[in-house]
């Protein structure tokens, strides 16, 4: 009887741990300023929802762009900038702009592991060094 109770308890614990693992959200904060991201390298798991919260400590609007990445369930929240620089930027796979002094959140699920270049598409910012790397790792 004792062995059956212990086995059932262990099985329940294992199932609960696996269920929590598959629904976990990876949350990170990223600071934007003139001209960089902190951290510049962001590591997230493939196949799980990611929530990146951006705080723009700069004096002007900045954005966060990743192109050439397979993502799903993309949404944005918060003080998303009007992107006064022009263009709708719908050509990018991931994109969010954040007003000066504002906060915004980008939510997405990366579908494949790989290394992807991050950059600010505001004119001159990428050239000034506002770049980074999004590293998506297999579970």
**Helix content estimate:** 10-25%
Unreliable runs = 1-20
| CATH level 1 name | Mainly Beta
User: Largest sheet, described in full?
Assistant: 5 strands, mixed
In total, the number of domains comes to: 1
How do the strands line up in the largest sheet? 2-1-4-8-6
Q: How many helical elements? A: 1
SSE run = HEEEEEEEEEE
Q: Any idea of the CATH topology?
A: Immunoglobulin-like
Number of strands: 10
Radius of gyration: 19 Å
User: Overall pLDDT, averaged?
Assistant: 84
Give the overall form: globular
Quote the beta fraction: 35-45%
Head-to-tail CA distance between termini: 37 Å
Describe the protein's topology.
Layout (H helix, E strand, L loop, with lengths): L1 H22 L2 E8 L2 E3 L2 E5 L4 E7 L5 E5 L4 E8 L15 E5 L4 E8 L3 E6 L11 E7 L2
Parallel strand pairs: 1-4, 3-10
Antiparallel strand pairs: 1-2, 4-8, 5-7, 5-9, 6-8, 9-10
At a glance:
The protein has one domain: Sandwich (Immunoglobulin-like), CATH 2.60.40.420.
Structure keywords:
139 residues; alpha+beta; Immunoglobulin-like; five-stranded mixed β-sheet; 1 helix; 10 strands; 45% strand; globular; disordered N terminus
């Amino acid at each position: 009887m004792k062995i059956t109770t212990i086995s059932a308890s262990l099985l329940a614990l294992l199932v609960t741990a696996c269920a929590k693992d598959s629904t976990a959200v990876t949350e990170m904060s990223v600071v934007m300023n003139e001209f960089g991201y902190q951290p510049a390298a962001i590591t997230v798991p493939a196949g799980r929802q990611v929530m990146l919260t951006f705080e723009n400590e700069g004096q002007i609007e900045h954005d966060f762009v990743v192109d050439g990445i397979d993502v799903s369930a993309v949404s944005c929240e918060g003080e998303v900038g009007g992107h006064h620089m022009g263009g709708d930027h719908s050509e990018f796979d991931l994109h969010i702009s954040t007003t000066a002094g504002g906060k915004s959140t980008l939510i997405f699920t990366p579908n494949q592991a790989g290394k992807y270049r991050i950059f600010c598409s505001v004119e001159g910012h990428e050239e000034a060094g506002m770049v980074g790397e999004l590293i998506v790792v297999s579970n």
